[in-house]
Design a protein that fits this description.
By secondary structure, this protein is of the alpha/beta class. The chain contains twelve helices and five strands. It folds into two domains: 61 residues, no CATH class; 171 residues, Rossmann fold. 27% of the residues are buried.
């Protein structure tokens, strides 16, 4: 009968139940557990397995490049970051409201680390998210124009609960890329949260994207439901002893 149960669970793709079937049945025989209790335990194991598998898949699909979390961020080394504000954001109410977060600051001050930490927290809490380097995202959008898959790609990108676009500023842009990016931001507006890290203040976006009317519309949407986090401080990539000896730090 055990073999038949394993075969049936395999056919029904009940992998969590199949993995724990032998141990649960053995325990039930030893302790005289009721059939209902044994079945309940098996179902709990299936639920646990599916939740773990779902989380693993969400983390894998998010393409997060570093294992950073809010608990590993060196707040003590970067006084330009408001720790209370960041910890409040970890409650993820901004994702529920579909608000945006824009991190502005010089290279190395911790923008990407904080944004990745919030993205990871959202995924651990059950949301679907994705990390993109800004240039890679724009190149992927441009490549999709050649094989006419842009609508499909935009639909996928627009569907993420939280989309992190890193390093807006170090970009080489074609007009088609700019148009596709603005379309993506328009489709996410008011529906999903977008996180952007950049070394450019808002006024400098006009020089990057060139089209004033489109930048006006983009900023109008991004800043409507948005928290802007400006980080002023020294680069965290500089060795600590160098920072202490540097009078400009």
């Amino acid at each position: 009968m055990k073999e038949k149960l394993h075969q049936l669970m395999e056919m029904l793709k009940l992998k969590g139940m199949a993995k724990s079937l032998d141990s649960v049945l053995l325990k039930a025989e030893k302790e005289g557990t009721s059939t209902c209790e044994a079945l309940y335990t098996l179902l709990l194991e299936e639920q646990r397995y599916r939740e773990e598998t779902s989380l693993k898949n969400r983390l894998q699909n998010a393409k997060i490049p570093r294992d950073w979390t809010v608990h590993t961020f060196p707040f003590d080394l970067q006084p330009g970051v408001n720790k209370t504000q960041i910890m409040d954001l970890c409650g993820l109410s901004f994702v529920q409201r579909a608000d945006n977060l824009i991190f502005i600051g010089d290279p190395g001050v911790g923008k990407t680390g904080l944004a990745i930490s919030l993205l990871r927290q959202a995924i651990l809490s059950g949301y679907r998210g994705r990390f993109y380097n800004a240039q890679d995202l724009l190149d992927e959008l441009y490549a999709s124009l050649a094989d006419r898959t842009t609508p499909k790609l935009l639909k996928t990108l627009a569907g993420y609960d939280i989309l992190l676009i890193d390093e807006v500023g170090y970009l080489s842009l074609k007009p088609e890329q700019v148009n596709a990016f603005f379309k993506l931001m328009g489709e996410r507006y008011g529906r999903k949260s977008t996180l952007i890290t950049t070394n450019l203040d808002y006024c400098d976006w006009y020089d990057l994207f060139k089209k004033k009317s489109l930048v006006d519309a983009l900023l109008d949407r991004l800043k409507h439901y948005c928290t802007t986090i400006r980080i002023n401080g020294h680069s965290l990539r500089v060795p600590k002893k160098d920072c202490e000896n540097d009078p400009s730090s």
